[in-house]
Amino acid sequence: MRQIISLALLQALMLIPLKAAPLCAQSPSAKELLDDAAKAMGGLQALKALKNQVIESEGKQFDSSSTSRPGGPTRQISTIRTTLTRDLAQPRLKMGYEGKSLLARQAIPWVEIIDGEVGFLREGAGADAKQSRLHPARLATRMREEKRAAAKIILIALGQKNLRRLADGELDGRPQRVVAFVENGDEFRVYLDAKTKLPSQVEIMEDDPLEGDSRFTLRYSDWRKVDGVMLPFGLRTELNGKPLQEEQIKSVRNNVALAADVFSVPQAIRDQKVDAKPIASQWLLRRVAGNVGYADLGRNPPVEIVPMAEGVYRFQGSSHNTIVVEMRDYLVAVEGPLYEERTAAVVKAIKERFPAKPIRYVIPTHHHLDHAGGIRAFMAEGAIVIVPFVATEFYARVAKAPHTLRPDSLEKKGHAVVIESYGGGYLALTDGNQRVEIYPLPVPHAEDFQVIYLPRAKIMIEADHVSPRGGQVRTAPAVGEFVQAVDKLNLDIQTVAGIHGDSATMQAVRAAAKSGQK
Ligand SMILES: [Zn+2]
What we know:
- With 518 residues, the chain is of the alpha+beta class.
- Helices cover 21% and strands 37% of the residues.
- The strands form three sheets. Strands 7-6-5-4-3-2-14-13-12-11-10-9-8 form a 13-stranded antiparallel beta sheet, covered by helices on one side.
- Helix 1 (30-41) packs antiparallel against helix 4 (150-158) and helix 12 packs across helix 13.
- It is globular, with a radius of gyration of 25 Å.
- The model is unreliable at 9-18 (pLDDT under 50).
- Bound molecules: zinc ion (ZN).
- Zinc ion binds at residues 66, 366, 368, 371, 445, 464.
């Protein structure tokens, strides 16, 4: 059974009213409101007297993207403990992190040290610890988070020339005054409680690959007085209202006599080259929370074309691939991963390699952030999105999400997107020569999971279960789950091709599944 829906883009643009209400000369002014907030926190002098802080906290991290159901309920992924040493006078900090993952993936302890423009990352503990220069985007993201530290935000806001007052708001039934400023291209919106005058939350307006124009929020709660300054002991970050992290602060020490080398970055690390742009992004923080990679963010994405069989090509990236099947009159692409910058480069490479054929279909393996995040670059090409019924609404939302803050290719082209969904069996595309069969695969990883079978080459394309490296297959429970589910399809599979990694023989996959059971 098939169903085709076509979405006109423009009708949806009004869904999320992100544009602030028109500003009018309200009284009191933005500056006066911030002065009141400083007073409520203990006074400007007391805030300025804070030179450093050592903060210990415990918390939880959440994920609302890599869920089983598309758009499905947010789940907790880890418990965390952090120790943060921040310099309030200079851009320096040290963040120690210990996580306990609730999923199979191990959370690795890490330490970040930032000294101005350069940062240091130690991952792991003891002799196995890995040391590297902190990715410029991770550094930029951390330092942007520092601006929202309660001890800093009022002083930072007061120093902005473009400070303005927005329309009043409400949070949990409490009236809020809202002031905003733009720094480094990011709009910050500071909510101040009308009664207590204390800051309630700070939103940063940011683009998200799937959700579009987004509110990345830090909420403060549990205010307590420390050394004459009011500080929040409850911190919670959210993306569009969905929780990312909750922290309960256990202790705050102000103006500590710090050791001289607390923020020191080894010379060997300083000498390491960096080539990525310093893009501050909530996306990166979510990748760090999930203990997964983000190395290509802000880099020119590498695209290597690897022929796999007649008419089958892997457009390889450093972490995620797109697999292209050449039909007589058109192309079929499997996966638009990561984000616009990655998939747009893949689309460009496909068009250069096959200038005469349109990309007619794009087939995402499942809705997870890193697998679907670039799909809008294919939507912008007019590719029809093929998904199981369960994912129709999800991709319709992705197609309609306004991306005005950082317009991507679909936002710029602004044309209709067609989603073809199916159920009750598999779906096949054929030109009499090459055939592409798309099967829903019932696995715990995602309810909308699909595998793509190419009968001519006997290739099965999959994501996140096998992920072969150099033809080798790891022994993980997911490999067994894959084999069990795929065997029920009764297909003649010779090769398993990963969206991650490369390819392996089905024999090697079976062997790994077997030894994983022992
Ligand atoms: Zn996944």
